[in-house]
Write a structure and sequence with these properties.
Distance between the termini: 70 Å
Largest sheet: 2 strands, antiparallel
Number of strands: 2
Strand content: under 5%
Order of helices and strands: HHHHHHEEH
Number of helices: 7
Radius of gyration: 22 Å
Length: 157
């Protein structure tokens, strides 16, 4: 199979993996297992390519093209879905980079001032702020409501 055809097919498999599997449920708890599975499948692709032809640099290039195509298709599909109008949290305002990855939030909080970041985001976006792919931050008064709830709960006991 030509390299371009292999790349396009691998991209299609990556998109299908996201659309058919990863779009449903929460997969972050299985990240180590998924990483191991992807590495194993990557090695199997390399072995398959080596068995198909003799071991040569072109064999490694073909395997790399297939693996890269799959990953490009998978991650492109994930990012496009998260910023698309089809995502279930699309109506909540928030920083666009926070919608794509958690790294934005980690970078913003690198100086341990998450509380100030949350206040700024509430000031800019309102009471409900989308701060992640599947995270919504409720307004400033949530802490007060939660504290009052805990006090009332203790009084009832």
């Amino acid at each position: 199979m030509p390299v371009s055809t292999s790349f396009i097919a691998a991209c299609a498999v990556g998109i299908a993996a996201h659309a058919g599997l990863f779009i449903r449920g929460e997969w972050h708890m299985q990240a180590p297992t998924l990483l191991v599975l992807h590495v194993v499948f990557g090695l199997l692709i390399v072995l398959f390519e080596v068995r198909k032809e003799d071991f040569s640099p072109s064999t490694l290039i073909n395997a790399s093209v297939i693996i890269g195509g799959y990953l490009i298709g998978l991650f492109s599909s994930i990012v496009l879905y998260r910023v698309s109008p089809f995502h279930r949290l699309r109506k909540f305002p928030g920083p666009r980079l926070a919608v794509v990855s958690k790294f934005w939030h980690v970078w913003q909080c690198r100086d341990s001032r998450n509380h100030e970041l949350m206040e700024r985001m509430h000031g800019q976006y309102g009471e409900f702020v989308r701060i992640g792919m599947i995270k919504i931050l409720k307004g400033r008064h949530f802490r007060i409501e939660y504290a009052a709830y805990r006090v009332l709960q203790d009084l009832v006991r």
